[in-house]
Amino acid sequence: MEPPVTEKNFVTVQSTLPSLPYPLVSDRRHIKSGRLLIREHRASDLEALYELRRQPEVMAYTHKGVVDLDRAETQAWLVKKLAPQGNENFDFVIADADTDVLVGTGGCHLRAGKVGWPELGYMLRKEAQGKGYATEFVNAFLEAYWALPRMQTDVAVDVETIDRHENMGGAKECIVAITQARNKASHNVLRKTGWKLVKAFEEPDRFPKNDGDMVTLYVWTLTKSSKAATDCARKV
């Protein structure tokens, strides 16, 4: 069921977040799943990333919304994933486990996203879509993400991302995903991996056909306990 579109409404709660600093890019352990190797970004990934970010089908649902114009634009994006800037987030390359060929990127790209919580995002080459890679990546990444050390902190978050019965002094930590309302493929991935659709809000369309055009965005949340419950159900 689709939630009604509402305005953002922030409250400050006490919760936990991954401790800072994150593991340095140079020290991050590879995450391995059945078909995927989830590893750090490298300067040598430029050409493969340029090919990825030149695919309109891939970029349509990203914050940027359009393909990179040239390699210089991709290089500027890649620099933010390499040390030292890359140390500030928990982002990875998604590669084929056997060949190390890049098939996408993903991870926690914002520590404080559109609704306050850390945000998960990913993108896969069009040739890799529809094969279960996204689900495999999300499950493998989340296992590593929830294993990070935690710190107690105050967090300003949208009120619809916390349990109504929770005390403001102790809200369960969430990670969120933001999707466009029309991105049905990502909705399926998030549902299969245990996420809950909690909010819809609107932003000005980056590419409006008419003045005042808006785009509807969905907010999905996941807590460590809900992820564990999904994993248990999958094993039964």
UniProtKB/TrEMBL annotation:
PANTHER family to which the protein is assigned, alphabetical: GNAT FAMILY, PUTATIVE (AFU_ORTHOLOGUE AFUA_3G00765)-RELATED-RELATED, N-ACETYLTRANSFERASE DOMAIN-CONTAINING PROTEIN
Protein name (record): N-acetyltransferase domain-containing protein
PROSITE patterns, sorted: GNAT
Lineage of the organism: Eukaryota, Fungi, Dikarya, Ascomycota, Pezizomycotina
InterPro entries named among the record's database cross-references: Acyl_CoA_acyltransferase, GNAT_dom, N-acetyltransferase
All residue ranges annotated as the N-acetyltransferase domain in the record: 36-223
Entries under Pfam families matching the protein: Acetyltransf_3
SUPFAM superfamilies hit by this protein: Acyl-CoA N-acyltransferases (Nat)
Domain of life: Eukaryota
GO molecular function: acyltransferase activity, transferring groups other than amino-acyl groups
